[in-house]
Amino acid sequence: MDPTEQQPPAALRDVISRQGVVLGQSVHRLAGLEAASQSLHQEIAQLASQVEKLTLALSPSPGPSGASAAVAAAAPPPASFPAEPPAPPAPASSRDLSKIYYVMGLLRDQALAWALAFDSTTPLTSLTFKQFTDELSTVFDHPDHVGDASKRLLKLRQGSRSAAEFSVEFRTLAADTKWNDEALKGVYYQALTEALKDGLSVSDEAKDLNSLITMSIRLDNRLRERRRERSGQSASALPRLFQPAVERSSATPVFPPAQSPAPAPPDDEPMQIGRTHLTATERQRRLQTGDCLYCGKPGHRISSCPVRPKDKAH
């Protein structure tokens, strides 16, 4: 199966468009060569005519004598013929055409569509490379490119980025402005973080923008390295009591404080059946062991319990 049949419609249209551009370039090259050949033939014909005239003018002729000389002297001068019209302007050179076709091969999307439409109305063989680039700039160049870059530069701030990353964007926007070095220095300084401003305030003043950027990058690198060192020391110096709960639980299990057992009742406090009833399990245990059902002590029965009040009935 042909590989082009498996391509999606968009990709196929792109391939056909590229082939059309290449074919159009070939046609324009042939037309340019043909026009150059015709112009060369015209120039050769003009040179041949001029050489023939010069040959006739320089060829020796017998001088007139006697009456012939007098007649020749009295004869009016020969009529002058108007000069030949200037030759039409030569078409664009092959070098300009090659540059134009190379630039067209690099265009995409809207730029490529414009170039094809422009070629259909204005033959590229009649343009120089400068004329083509001027037309391209007229259509696609931003009319207020400098003003837009100036506004973006004034709003630019370093933020959380490093000074090196911030400087790249600053230089990119500064290249599109027409500000002098002093103005760029002031804008760059105001866009830095407060920490960098404090560090630069104790240093010698930079003589130009490049020096200020270099100093800012060095200072920012030192500050960031120092923050990393402090964060590492703080994490290792924390006591285990103040470490995060996740780390503490994974290292040593923490148990709730043990509660002290409730104090046992004194041995001499009797079990008052009238107020506190024995459970079925406790009553069964005392019957099996022979302990007193009133005070729970062995060696006697409830009827002879020494701590049981005497006025209680059996």
From TrEMBL:
Chain spans, region Disordered: 59-92, 248-284
Listed Low complexity bias regions: 64-74
Pfam family, any one: Retrotrans_gag
GO molecular function annotation: nucleic acid binding; zinc ion binding
Species whose genome carries this gene: Xiphophorus maculatus
Keyword Lyase attributed: no
Keywords noted in UniProt: Coiled coil, Metal-binding, Zinc, Zinc-finger
Residue ranges of coiled coil: 30-57
Protein name: CCHC-type domain-containing protein
InterPro entries: Retrotrans_gag_dom (IPR005162), RTL1-rel (IPR032567), Znf_CCHC (IPR001878), Znf_CCHC_sf (IPR036875)
Domain called CCHC-type: residue spans: 292-306
Biased amino acid composition, Pro residues: 75-91, 254-265
PROSITE patterns recorded: ZF_CCHC
PANTHER family: LDOC1 RELATED, RETROTRANSPOSON GAG-LIKE PROTEIN 5
